[in-house]
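Re: the multi-chain job from yesterday

Posting the exact lines I submitted so nobody has to dig through the queue logs.
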Amino acid sequence: MATLSNAHPDLAAWDRAYRKVALLLRAYQVENAYVRHELAREIVQETLHALPEGHEPEALAVENLRRRLSAWLRRLNDATDDKGRNGYTEARMLTIVQASRIVQRWPQHFLGTGEFEPELLQAVREARIVGVPNLHRASIGVPQIQFETVSDVAEGTRRLFSNSILRICTFVAIVGAGIATVIYLAR
Amino acid sequence: MSAEPQSTSTTPAGGFARPLFFGLHAVLTVCAGAIYWDLLNRAGFTATSFLLLVLFVILFAHITFGFLQPLFGLVIALRGNDPRSITRTVDLDQDPATIKLTSRTALIFPIYNEDPDRFFAGVETVYRRLKALGQIEHYDVFVLSDSTDADNWIAEEIAWNETAVRLGAHGKLFYRRRRNNINQKSGNVSDFCRRWAGSYDYMLCFDADSLMSGECIVRMTEMIERNPQVGILQTMPGLLNGRTLLARLQQFTNRVHGHLSGAGLNAWQQDYGNYWGHNAIIRLKPFLKYCTLPELPGVEPLGGRVLSHDFVEAMLMHKAGYEVWLAYDLCGSYEEMPPTLIDMAKRDRRWCQGNLQHAWLVLFGKIPYLSRIHMVNGIMGYISSPLWLLFLGLVTLATYRWVGSDLTLVVRDSAFSFMPETLAEQGLLLLGLTAFMIFGPKLMTLAWLAFRPGVARSFGGWPRAAASVLCEIFFFTLIAPSMMLFHSGFVLTILLGQKVKWSTQVRDSGDGTPWRAALAAQGGHLVVGLLWGALAWTVSPTLFWWMSPVLLGWLLAVPLSVYTSRESAGQWFRRRGLLLTPEETEPSPEVCELRSLTAEGPQMPAHMERFEDIGLLGVVLDPYINALHGLLMREKSQPDPNVRETLRKLEHKLLQEGAEALNNAEKMRLLLDYESIVRLHKQVWSQPDHRLSPWWQQASRSYTYRMLFHQRGE
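And the result, structure tokens for all chains:
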């Protein structure tokens, strides 16, 4: 195997890199095992050729996958060129890819560089992710019930009773009056 | 469309039912009051007698209200074709799919940390039913989240996206989460109104556990379109999906007695109906213009912001000249209920505070008198408990005084010639009258079912329905004394200034109430029962036996709480054909659909369920969840360098120590920052596994397993 002949001496590290990339591809819902293996192998191989000294193969392979994904999403966005999409963001495009099940329906196109199938582009165009609609603000009226006088009295009373000693005294007086009433009635 | 009401009404309000209802109410209350006054007078009228008479009249007036409503309902139901029903304004025989609607309605579903699976099953069912009718074009669905729990938030986002994708409803089914949930549910709805109400004619409010059929929604929309002076149209939600014994008791009571009560309620309120906060359609223009909630004088618990906003909004609608109707005979409106006695008490604690706040409006607000009656009824629902308790206390005290005096009671002649000679017989007459007011509605329901075998069949047939009513009477008679103590405690603590916290209503009982929890919550009831029982026996064994139903309820409070919280007990009754409801015997398509959507899938192995931070885990590990969460953020990142520094520290802590090291507020801060979640996602995936902290290694394994499990499930 040509790849292994100039491979990193730590094969275990490359094994970890492959597993990580394959796992991340699974997280992107590449369920087809063959496609997943081919993509992971390709990405790890690319990383291996350009591995700078002292770098972790795992981190670089994941970075490589991300770079390819960004480029693929941008290309997909340009190919569909939807004016109503409210600007391009990677997050929006990725959510559209998931909503239109592109990876499950056209796994061979995922992260590829070839032309997109017309049905795939149509599916992307039809998918919309709208959290909330555009604002259509309405003004809300003023409260119809006012309590000015009562409110002042209530607020004054509340302030008066915010004094803890007064509150305790009042509570003791009420309880005392209750007990006195019961004793009186029971006589 | 104008925000002013039309001068001519198209609704069927009028007739003599309202004056007859209040006239009868007054006559019955005065008669019972006179009999009790006579009884007290014959034994010698004292200061205690005066207090007892005042309490009796207030309490009797309250239970008479509850008696007359089903009585009027029975007459209407037996006569058929209610002339005062709002549903007369539309053709109920018309196929709802052919109804031509001209308006746009927002269906709003507020959510606050409730189970997202059950919640979105409800949303999906409603959407599917409207789509099946071909009427979905007239509706948009808004999920209005106020959730504060990190996991719930993320689970809602995922469930919303999956539901919208499954239904092809992106652009029709929206999700919005508020950053600051000020003013709780009413604030949540106000926020919707400010932002999007301008696009709609009406809004139909749901609760997190609500369900409505497509037919019901379309007919409600048609009714409010046809009657421009109707501001709010409320339906009567039937309770469903109860599994514990208590839940099944509640849903049976609601379904079997609901129709007569609803018809009677509508007979007197008509165009002055009430709003119950959900399962109702609201005309938006007057709602925005006139229904802004007032700030009550003082501070919470009795002042400040209005908690039970629905009653106040209905009152404001009346004040503005609009009508509020109850479509009591419209089928297809449902909600769920608390599964245990303790959960029911917790819910009542919130409602109690909200209803007591209405005292401000009743006493000092310039409001229509029928709105005042609604509010007084709401207040009496809770105040009656301490009043009953006081009444029992005074009866004990009066008996003690009489027994302790060692005097022979010289009975005076009655002021009424038809009255029995002895005091005991007169007391029994009064007791019989009171019992008839309380249990009479049950007999009315059984009479109605006897005349309507088709309806009785949906409750398992007349004999089973009758047996179920007996079960219901037995259990609720025993539960009532406990609820009386709960409510009395709530009223007292609220008057002493204790506020209620906004909490999620529990709808799933789990394994039922543990003995320890029941003892902690209701041990006091047992103590009260023992002490009062001993006191009553010491004072007079006759008093003890008179009070025995109440004493028994207190003594059995704890075992009753535990037993009624169990699903096995609920199922025992169901297997015997007892406490059946139409939703169990003849479930409608929407109920079947909801049940199939909430049916549990394959269970994860127990050892994989240990991660409580599944929301945060999903955002950090899953690229799609990460992207979706980022997409739904309105403010993408924090520009303040100090805030950024704090967030960096939190990210570091999360990576080093795992999610368990962060509290909910810290997790929420990270989840609210776009930069942080993107960076965390990159860092966790780029790190070699052996450099990840043990928590993240375990989390990654769990995530992988979940991913495989989920894909296998698909």
